[in-house]
Amino acid sequence: MVDWPSTLPCQPEQGTWQEAPSPSLASFAPEAGPTIDRRRGTVFTMASGGTFLFTKAEYLVFLAWYRDDLKAGAMPFNFDHPLTGVPARWKFDPKPGWALAGVTNRKVRVAMQLRQLP
After folding, report:
1. Which one, out of 11, 71, 104, 114, has a CA that is 20 to 30 A from the CA of 5?
2. Does residue 88 lie in a domain region?
3. Distance CA 82, CA 10 (A)
4. Domains of the chain: total
5. 94 to each of 55, 89, 115, how far by Cα in Å?
6. Is 64 within a domain?
7. Is the pTM of this model over 0.85?
8. Three-class DSSP category at 36
9. Bridge-based pairing state of the strands 98-103 and 77-80
10. What range defines the domain where residue 35 resides?
């Protein structure tokens, strides 16, 4: 399993981290009465994301890690949860997993959409 690069910041910019449970219910509307709901499965995942502030050199490290080590986002990686500090497995969401959110002459903001795996 690939680890988050130790040379990159491990905390998102303050106030940018968000998370929500992934949809896990299947609903059916009968001819009469309320919907009938059931769980889709037993796996619970969280959709998470935030903006990370990199130097230009760190951004190049991130690009190489994403492209080469994660096979363009196809592979999961180890990363300590930014709120709890607990080690967890993550994967980039396929659309889009990350995007540039701003560039200055010294810093690069990268917005990431991640999925915490069980």
Report:
1. 104
2. yes
3. 7
4. 1
5. 25, 16, 10
6. yes
7. no
8. strand
9. unpaired
10. 17-117
